[in-house]
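Summarise this fold before class:
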Amino acid sequence: MELRKEPRKAPKQAVDTNVTYQTMSEYPVITGEGTLLDISENGCRVGGIHALRKGIRIQMAVRGEPEEPVTVLANCNVAWIKDKEFGVQFLW
């Protein structure tokens, strides 16, 4: 059953490790890299090996094309985790 309101879209270019993330309230800080798998207005799905858990707050930097600036998402919540993927909710 599909629960999201906005459709998710695949990124323009599939690039390995185009996402860098860091926890905001954990000690020690957890950092990692992953691949943006899809994105919508309110969240995204990131693939890769991680040490995160559901409910943790993170900030993310997403790299696109080489000539494009990095997008920083400073207020995110890990909404779900499954195998080597996790879902992120953007907290506006």
Observations:
- The first strand starts at residue 19 and ends at 23.
- The chain has a mean pLDDT of 86.
- Strands lie at 19-23, 31-39, 43-47, 57-62, 71-82, 85-90.
